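Notebook entry, structure prediction.
Reason for the run: the old model in the group folder had no record of what sequence produced it. Starting over properly, with the input documented here first.
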Amino acid sequence: MSGEMSTAKSITPRRLKIAAIVAVVIAILIVAYGIASRAADESRLKQWTAAEAIPTVTVIQPSTSGIGQSIMLPGRLEAFYRAPIYARVSGYLKIWYTDIGAKVRTGQVLGVIETPDLDQQLEQAKADLATARANESLAETTAKRWQTMLKSDSVSQQATDEKNGDLAAKQTIVNAASANVERLQALESFKRIVAPFDGVVTSRDTDVGALIDAGGGRGPQLFTVSDIHLLRVYVSVPQDVAPAIHPGMTAQLLVPGHGDTKFTAKVDSTSGSVNAESGTLLVELSLDDSSGALMPGDFANVRFDLSADANVIRVPASALIFRSAGLQVATVDATGRAKLLPITVKQDLGRWIEVASGIKAGDRIIDSPPDALSDGDEVHVAAADAPSAAPAAQEGAGHEPD
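New structure, fully documented this time:
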């Protein structure tokens, strides 16, 4: 019994020591594993955080090929010919034959003016002409008689010359009286108010018995005749688009009251000068309206389809960056870093911007760049470059929408 107790006493401390050492080693291993695991987690977290800090962007590639533009502008329609008819003689309107809306032919009588004063002047002029011719005839007979007597020396040369001079004076008086009669007869012809060309009576501003004053274009007009088989369309085109408008090109018209019906007009000419106040070019178009569907004075929306500009570059408005440094766009370089480029805008089309300078067709432009994006920041491109940033037709203020 005593031997067994002695052996137990000698073994237990040694075992306890070994156990303690093993426990310490295990504790050290556990601590080391925990430290290593935490360090690995921190490293992974840092890597994840760094990766998440790189913004993911979508890039587009602007193109200059096939970029067309449609611009819609207000216009007004006018008759191809429009003639306000004024009175050339004074009197009273005796009768009128055509009212508004009547179709008339060239030379057709619109009305007749009663001119008693002019009639009396013409009768007096005719009487004066008859008197002048009688005096001329007498002067001619006297001059011939004195010319005959001069051959027999019955009268003097001086007296004969006086008779010949009197005849010349009488002939001149006849000519003047004849011209006065012709003048009054010409005025008499203006008693009949006639249409100057084929067209439609678009106004009648007189009535039977009205006092007519020969105003020479300054008084009130009696009738207005308009030729509406052709219509003129006038449009004020902004200066930045004016160079693309030229005679011979066509435009489409949408006229309120005619639904979706489109009318085709052709550019005839331009004013050749930009209005200093409005900054627009006046363009004249002609429109065949043989059917009579349209009317002078109509408002129309005129659409010009402009040809593509091989030098223009367009980007979406969402790609613009507005900062204190000015208007910029962000591009992605070959190393995957952002580069901010200042640009100059040529034209604002609303959803799309025409860029005059600052970028090239091959640049990769970031669409909707992050607000915190800075020059030189690393970015991640989410997808392949789009083939083009601009569609065939753009929208904007005064432009036809997509």
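Summary: Residues 390-402 have pLDDT under 50 and may be disordered.
The old model has been moved to the deprecated folder.
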